[in-house]
Write a structure and sequence with these properties.
heterodimer; A: 264 residues; alpha/beta; four-stranded antiparallel β-sheet; 8 helices; 27% strand; B: 440 residues; eleven-stranded mixed β-sheet; ten-stranded mixed β-sheet; 10 helices; 23% helix
């Protein structure tokens, strides 16, 4: 049994509209996979489908992890298997402090209540690692957070929950360069040989700070190109139209497919 | 603990029954006359009409008279009486059905003139206070329900705090009813004189029974100049109880009255809660929590009544509904012409956990003064599926995710509740309703 997460021939539609049209991708432990592609190519759909968002209907295909087809599991059971999604747009939940929320999540992950002193210790350590103000822990989850703070809160959750597969959905979006560096440093400090990471991004700039081992390019619901770290750089230089030419898709995505993707 | 004794009555609601009950309680002439006048008011009054609570199938004849206590008191009440629950309190008052079964007050406070007793007894022992205040804020003519209470209440809780006396810890009050098919008429009178302070923590409770029960509580709170009264009221009546509640406080100059209301139980509840800001500089705060499950119907009316200048009102209510429960929240800020320079805020939010539950929230303003600040707001919303999904991706199952959202929703209220025991009591009630545990 492989330790990796294997996506096989995944077809997904949203409200009857096909978005993913046969995705094959393996996220390997200890490696950073970059998933790049233009808006509307299906990147976020893949992220949400991996986590089991109810709006995304799987029409065909499987996702294997630890001997299970995780598509049959509830989102929380996927989380308990060690899969984590850092959201592009995390929700704001007033009334739940970051600290309480993390204790709740870690307790759920472990299947038993984490004692408060232990939780405090973990929090202090991880927040220090991510260069976060300890006062952050007492604030309500994402309430009044800046774009950068929201992303950092996502990475803090990742650090505390210590996943085996981490999917970062457009973690760079809406961040200025300083915030981007801080978030990337955070991600790098969490990475370890037992964790496979899928970094979803539209732009190459995040990959200046999080070095990918493999680059996958998604277009029109399929992985159309794969390569090493140099592919990301090449993409930056030549643009997605170059990819379209290479793989023989001449037209950009029709607007309604873009809309379906934006919906996520 | 089994309770016996006290007033027994035979017939249904009737004038004779009032006279018989009054004689058995050894009422003073004043009280006897008051009761009979209340009966006449009851007989003359029309059934109240509530826009969103249908009383067409409600009949007083369906319910018997208040009866003697005969059942077992709930274990937590017994623990409170025995002092084994560890709660800090200045006094304890317990009434079961029509009889007061336990009264205890801190001796030092009693020496300073604080009175905690049955209201019936106080009417005999302290007529100068009781006759001055009982039925003054809530006259029997107010509604048919109030009239019935004024005619038929027995026992009753009376708390008097003299001038400048501060009662630091809560006076705990329990009204317990376990007479299926019967009725109960809890009655409270709290009088805090000038610069006095006290906190009343009361719970109305009943076990699950197989026949409907009627309860009609009436509470009057008088806060003299500069007095501070906190009144915490939790109703956790059983699911066959129909209850009609009337509560009114009066705040004299610079007095403050804080209500904390927890509406958890009963099949049908209509509640009316008001503070009259009677004196300049008086203030009131309402904190309310409501949780409806199964087919419960909670109809809540509140009034921030600004009569004097420079008065402050602040109301924050939050309700959660699940199953086919129904709630109505009607909140009025009324600012009279003389109440210049007053501030008043009212906010009500309801969270719906099912497709079948329903809530109406109707905040309103009646402002007759031109130099005031007042605002109101209300929201009714379904629990957000994106929140649930987000929490699930962090390992919480659906039920835990919803529970977390509910707890977070109540947090702004819980933060303002200073008594830890009250918070615990409310969390416990939600645990029971949701079949999950509050996480802490």
């Amino acid at each position: 049994m492989s330790d990796d997460l294997e996506i096989r021939n995944l077809h997904v539609s949203v409200e009857g509209k096909p978005i993913l049209k046969g995705v094959d991708l393996t996220i390997e432990k200890g490696r950073v996979h970059a998933l790049m592609g233009p808006n509307g190519s299906g990147k976020s759909t893949l992220a949400y489908t991996l986590m089991g968002h109810p709006l995304y209907d799987v029409d065909e295909g499987e996702v294997w992890f630890k001997g299970e087809n995780i598509l049959e599991l509830e989102p929380d059971d996927r989380a308990k298997l060690g899969i984590f999604l850092a959201f592009q747009y995390p929700v704001t939940i007033p009334g739940v402090s970051v600290a309480n929320f993390l204790r709740l999540a870690l307790s759920a992950r472990r299947g038993q209540k984490v004692p408060i002193p232990e939780m405090r210790k973990i929090l202090v350590e991880k927040m220090k690692m991510l260069d976060m103000d300890p006062a952050f822990a007492g604030r309500y989850l994402n309430e009044g957070f800046s774009g950068g703070e929201k992303k950092r809160a996502e990475i803090l959750q990742m650090a505390v929950l210590n996943p085996e597969i981490a999917v970062l959905d457009e973690t760079d979006s809406g961040l200025d360069i300083d915030a981007l560096k801080i978030v990337a440093q955070g991600v790098n400090s969490v990475m370890n040989p037992n964790m496979g990471t899928l970094v979803i991004t539209h732009y190459q700039r995040l990959l200046n700070y999080i070095k990918p081992d493999v680059t996958h390019v998604m277009l029109n619901g399929r992985i159309v190109m794969e390569g090493g770290p140099e592919l990301a750089l090449e993409l930056e230089e030549k643009g997605y139209d170059w990819v379209r030419e290479q793989v023989g898709i001449s037209e950009p995505l029709p607007p309604e497919e873009l809309a379906a993707e934006e919906h996520a | 603990m089994t309770i016996a004794n006290s007033v027994s009555t035979t017939a249904g609601f009737a004038r004779d029954a009032v006279a018989e009950l009054s004689a058995a309680q050894q009422d003073s002439t004043w009280l006897q006359t008051t009761r009979l006048a209340a009966w006449d008011a009851f007989a003359a009054a029309e059934m109240p009409r509530y826009e969103r609570t249908d009383l067409s199938k409600f009949h007083f004849e369906s319910f018997g008279l208040p009866v003697n206590a005969h059942g077992e008191l709930p274990t937590d009440v017994v623990a409170a009486i025995e002092g084994s629950d560890g709660a800090e309190r200045a006094g304890l008052f317990v009434q079961s059905n029509n009889a007061v079964v336990h009264v205890a007050l801190d001796e030092a406070l009693a020496k300073r003139g604080v009175i905690l007793s049955s209201l019936a007894e106080a009417a005999r022992a302290h007529p100068e206070i009781v006759e001055k205040h009982l039925g003054r804020l809530i006259p029997a003519t107010e509604t048919k329900f109030v009239a019935l209470n004024a005619a038929f209440w027995t026992g009753g809780m009376f708390l008097y705090v003299p001038r400048n006396v501060i009662v630091e810890t809560p006076i705990q009050v329990v009204f317990h009813a376990d007479a299926p098919g019967g009725s109960a008429f809890p009655r409270c009178l709290v009088v805090a004189e000038e610069s006095a302070a006290c906190t009343v923590l009361e719970e109305y409770m009943s076990p699950e029974t197989d026949a409907p029960t009627l309860t009609v509580p009436v509470t009057e709170v008088v806060a003299g100049e500069n007095a501070q009264v906190k009144f915490i009221h939790i109703q956790s009546w059983g699911s066959r109880v129909q209850t009609f509640v009337t509560q009114r406080a009066e705040a004299e100059a610079n007095a403050s009255v804080g209500w904390t209301l927890g509406h958890i139980g009963a099949k049908l509840m209509r509640s009316y809660s008001e503070t009259k800001l009677q004196g300049e500089g008086a203030s009131t705060q309402f904190l309310g929590v409501q949780f409806g499950s199964d087919s419960q119907h909670h109809d809540i009316y509140t009034l921030l009544n600004h009569i004097a200048p420079l008065t402050d009102g602040d109301l924050l209510f939050r309700g959660v509904l699940q199953d086919t429960a129904r709630s109505v929240f009607e909140g009025l800020i009324k600012i009279h012409p003389g109440a210049q320079d007053s501030n008043s805020y009212l906010h009500d939010n309801t969270l719906l956990l099912s497709e079948e539950c329903r809530a109406d929230s109707i905040p309103s303003l009646e402002i007759e003064a031109n130099q005031v600040r007042a605002s109101h707001g209300a929201t009714v919303s379904q629990v957000d599926e994106d929140w649930i999904f987000y929490l699930q991706t962090r390992g919480l199952n659906r039920a835990e995710a919803i529970r977390t959202i509910v707890d977070a929703f109540f947090e702004p209220i819980m933060q303002r509740i200073t008594l830890e025991g009250v918070k615990q009591r409310l969390w416990r009630a939600f645990d029971q309703k949701m079949g999950s545990r509050h996480f802490e």
